[in-house]
């Protein structure tokens, strides 16, 4: 059925530029290579629960190097994942243990609230310890290479965009449903069985729930690429844990280097954090960038973002220049955000993308 709804999702399979920028994702989606979390499960990790966090991170750094070496050997058919026995403790288990320690003094995102979520304390995002899900469905509205996308919307967010379109989720207006992780793993397997091309972890924001996502995929027994669909406002520790887990980083990039992120989304240091996380994502996985064009923000935000992408990640980076902005939630508090984009602004954004040298973008 979905083939008829989105013919571009079939056409994209033959788009050479998209195939180049998302080569491994396409292979995993088509069952030709294993998803990263499947490889992570096969790497032995020597650690104990009473090891210090510093020791765990040292092991993790070394195993991250081992991971990418093994991934390359598997991808070039020097090794076969099936031939590698299941270890008693894996690189994925190590990530789960580190993530559990982070929960004790939460710093999954750059707010670094430092609260002990395991003791019931809540930080800015109001996320606790039990993964709370708003909805799970086969999403037909994502980028053509992703649909149908098995999307899991988790509650809570690490930013507070006044124009948030999912504010009932990000701000916990909805209650959501607590999901036992083994049950969620079964949902992921069902999405795969129903033809979804990927497991799309989103919210709100997926970052506060990283420990729960990692644990969920410990129980997933199908080969499905993981899409990390995030605002890119996460800590370096989260970026390190995502290496060897996220196949595709689907990252927002919506504010330039000025004060817009702080004023509109309560996100200080956004540019520094966001650019660093895009660079790291590009190093550890494959990247799709969403640039939401905001009214009156073409010069201060859209232009520097598109130029930065072309200069630092290359002209062939897959970019979605998004014109979907509409005033939602508290957007009325920001005068220029009380309206949708004009036709002229959309045309100007396309010209900015072309002038920047981007050749693999959609709108
Ligand atoms: S994930 Fe939530 S609790 Fe943790 S640092 Fe970020 S906002 Fe604070």
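^ Assign residues to that structure.
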């Amino acid at each position: 059925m979905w083939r008829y709804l989105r013919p571009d999702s079939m056409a994209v399979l033959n788009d050479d530029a998209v195939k180049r920028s998302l080569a491994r994702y396409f292979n995993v989606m088509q069952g030709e290579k294993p998803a990263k979390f499947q490889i992570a499960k096969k790497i032995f990790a020597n650690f104990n629960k009473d090891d210090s966090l510093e020791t765990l991170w040292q092991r993790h750094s070394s195993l991250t190097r081992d991971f990418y070496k093994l991934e390359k050997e598997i991808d070039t058919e020097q090794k076969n994942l099936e031939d590698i026995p299941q270890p008693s403790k894996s690189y994925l288990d190590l990530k789960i243990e580190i993530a559990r320690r982070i929960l004790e003094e939460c710093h999954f995102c750059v707010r670094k609230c430092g609260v002990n979520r395991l003791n019931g304390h809540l930080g800015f995002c109001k996320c606790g310890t039990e993964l709370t899900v708003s909805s799970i469905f086969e999403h037909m509205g994502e980028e053509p290479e992703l649909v149908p996308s098995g999307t899991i919307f988790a509650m809570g967010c690490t930013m507070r965009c006044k124009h948030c379109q999912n504010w009932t989720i990000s701000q916990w207006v909805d209650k959501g449903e607590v999901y036992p992780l083994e049950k969620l793993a079964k949902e992921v397997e069902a999405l795969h069985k129903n033809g979804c091309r990927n497991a799309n972890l989103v919210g709100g924001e997926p970052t506060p729930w990283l420990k729960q996502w990692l644990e969920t995929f410990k129980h997933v027994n199908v080969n499905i690429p993981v899409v990390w669909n995030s605002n890119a406002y996460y800590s370096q520790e989260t970026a390190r844990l995502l290496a060897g887990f996220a196949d595709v980083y689907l990252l927002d990039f919506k504010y330039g280097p000025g004060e817009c992120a702080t004023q509109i989304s309560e996100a200080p240091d956004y540019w520094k954090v966001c650019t660093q996380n895009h660079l790291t994502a590009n190093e550890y996985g494959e990247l799709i960038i969403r640039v939401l064009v905001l009214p009156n923000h073409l010069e201060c935000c859209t232009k520097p973002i598109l130029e930065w992408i072309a200069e630092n990640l290359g002209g062939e980076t897959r970019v979605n220049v998004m014109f979907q902005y509409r005033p939602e939630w508290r957007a009325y508090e920001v005068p220029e955000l009380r309206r949708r984009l004009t036709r002229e602004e959309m045309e100007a954004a396309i010209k900015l993308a072309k002038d920047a040298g981007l050749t693999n973008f959609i709108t």
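The first helix runs from residue 2 to 5.
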